[in-house]
Every structure is written in C-alpha cells, then in structure tokens.
Amino acid sequence: MSETQTFMMGEYEASFPVEFRYAKNHMWAKEVEHNWRFGLSAYAVRLLQDVYFLDLTIEPGMNLQLRQEIGSIESKKAESSLYSPVAGTVTQINEDLLDDPTAINLDKYGAGWMFSLDCTGEDLLPVVDYMEHLNEAWEIAQRIIKGQANA
Questions:
Q1: Residues 6+ positions from 51 with CB-CB distance below 8 Å
Q2: Domain spans, the chain
Q3: pLDDT for 75-134, tens place per residue?
Q4: Are 90 and 61 in contact (CB under 8 A)?
Q5: What is the number of alpha carbons within 13 Å of residue 13 lying toward its C-beta?
Q6: What is the CATH number that goes with domain 4-143?
Q7: Which candidate, 11, 59, 69, 91, has a CA 20 to 30 Å from the CA of 140?
Q8: CA 46 from chain center: how many Å?
Q9: How far is CA 41 from CA 4, 72, 118, 146, 149, in A?
Q10: 144 half-sphere exposure, CB direction, 13 A CA radius
Q11: 3-state DSSP assignment of residue 104
C-alpha cells in the first residue's frame, strides 16, 4: 500500500490510504475501471472488531440513493445496518465476501471491498477532510462506548 494517514483511536491506530476517498459513514472508495469500489474504513473496522457476517441486499443494476439501506453487518461488538455512501448504480458485488467476510478484518483496503458503484465520486472526501470528520466522530464514539451518549 502507498502513503497513509493515521488516526489514533485511543491506543489503536487506524490507517487510511491517501489516494482513496472516504464517506462520512466510514466507507472508503477507490476508483477502479471507471467505477468506485467501496469498503469499510479502518475506523469502522476497529469499532466493529471481528466482522463475521455480511448481508448485502443490493444487486448489479440497482440504482441507489444516498443513505439508502443496502444490507447489514455483524461483528463481535455490534450488529448494524449498512447505507449507501453516495447515489449511484450498483455495478458489482464482492460475492466472495458474502461467503466469508473475514477479508474485511484482514485486508480492508483490498480483498475486503464490498461493492462497486457507477457514480461521480464528487461527494467523497479526500483523506485530509475525512481525518477532520474523524476528530468529531471519535468524541461521539467514545461517549457511546463509555455509555455516556446523553452526556
């Protein structure tokens, strides 16, 4: 992997390739053959810890709206719905990941990709802007983790 930026999540490091783009819902995006490939960022994977189930309810050819529910994920720490990071048309699903989602844990920026979209990518953040977003998100996440969401 090339150059990365690092965000400290307490004592843990989350690294982000600088050539990728990022969505505020903690998905990464990489342009591959005129489409954008999406997966979970190191930040999301660290919060989830040990992903063991992935269900995508989307298929190639489907048109997605921003924040449309696209499936769910389960891990050691949480069960969560997944939402589209941008509007676009689904071009590909990583079928291997549906059978065995451990690549999300082991190779999040490679084999851990989930799906590809035909979209503009214009709403995706460069790593510098995503790091700013993480500073805000981390404060909220720490309160939730500590059971102080309403503090």
A1: 40, 45, 73, 74, 75, 101, 102, 104, 105
A2: 4-143
A3: 988 899 999 999 999 999 999 999 999 999 999 999 999 999 999 989 999 999 999 999
A4: yes
A5: 5
A6: 2.40.50.100
A7: 69
A8: 11
A9: 12, 16, 20, 22, 23
A10: 8
A11: helix
DSSP symbols for 60-73: TT-EE-TT-EEEEE
H/E segment holding residue 141: helix 127-145
The DSSP output letter for 47 is H
Contact 38, 114 (CB under 8 A): yes
User: What is the CB-side half-sphere exposure of residue 28 using CA atoms within 13 A?
Assistant: 27
Query: What span, in angstroms and rounded, lies between the C-alpha atoms of 121 and 133?
Result: 18
| Cβ proximity of 58 and 70 under 8 Å | yes
Model pLDDT for residues 59-70, shown as the tens digit of each residue:
999 999 999 999
The length of the chain is 151
Identify residue 105 by its one-letter amino acid code: N
Task: Specify the residue for token string 């989602």.
Answer: 101
DSSP assignment, residue 124?
A: P
Residue 151's pLDDT band (cuts 50, 70, 90): very low
